[in-house]
Amino acid sequence: SDPPSPRSPSNRSSRKLSEDEMYLSDTGGQYLDGTTDITRTVHWGVPTPLQKEAYTRVLMGNIDLSRLVFPPNTAGGTVESFARRALWDVGLNYGHGTGHGIGNFLSVHEWPVGFQSNNVPLMAGMFTSIEPGYYRDGEFGIRIEDVALVVEAQTKKPFLTFEVVSLVPYDRNLIDLSLLSPEQIRYLNAYYETIRARVGPELQRQQLEEEYRWLQKSTEP
């Protein structure tokens, strides 16, 4: 018989999931109203102190870049370090780009938008991913990736900011709240309110009660 596809589970090449490790799930799809590229990292057991701190600092970087207000015609490479600062503070980093443009029924990695030095300036209407991470070879990997729309900020002069359009809760089990600033916590609570308001009614409409209860629990303030 043919060997199993690398994308299919098999008794020879796969192992069981356990509650004692982290999982990084990179998901996406193309729909009539947009393309998604969303990564979440979860731990169903008891994370180590390093795992919890690293995850929280990745989340802090995601939030800091997502809520940033910046002048028009700013290149992504100019603001990229906001996603890394919380990791840099304790000597951690990641070895990939912080985000890429996302096309609608085009490439999921859509040139020329993004945060590298050779990307074009950010303009209202562009979609980009925001995806800081942290990885330890042979141990665990963390990435938190959202899709964000560049929008005009509520400032006197026409500045820009991001509106995160991915509506998926983060893993509460991995967040060390003591590391977050009051502004970061306010951002997180506002994001959770948006998820509840937009996703909750749709789950109820589809009568997905177990999923609705999970959503409510995962988006508590």
TrEMBL record:
Determine the domain of life of the protein's source: Eukaryota
Region Disordered, residue ranges: 1-20
- Name the InterPro entries on file: Creatinase/aminopeptidase-like (IPR036005), Pept_M24 (IPR000994), Peptidase_M24_C (IPR032416), X-Pro_aminopeptidase_P (IPR050422)
Keyword Protease part of the UniProt annotation: yes
PANTHER family, per the entry: XAA-PRO AMINOPEPTIDASE 1 (PTHR43763), XAA-PRO AMINOPEPTIDASE 2 (PTHR43763:SF4)
What are the record keywords, sorted? Aminopeptidase, Hydrolase, Protease
Does this entry carry the keyword Hydrolase? yes
Q: Which gene encodes it?
A: Xpnpep2_1
The record's similarity note reads: Belongs to the peptidase M24B family.
Q: Name one GO molecular function term.
A: aminopeptidase activity
What is the protein's name according to its record?
XPP2 aminopeptidase
Q: Where is the Peptidase M24 domain?
A: 13-151
Q: Where are the transmembrane segments?
A: none
**What are the Peptidase M24 C-terminal domain coordinates in residue numbering?**
158-221
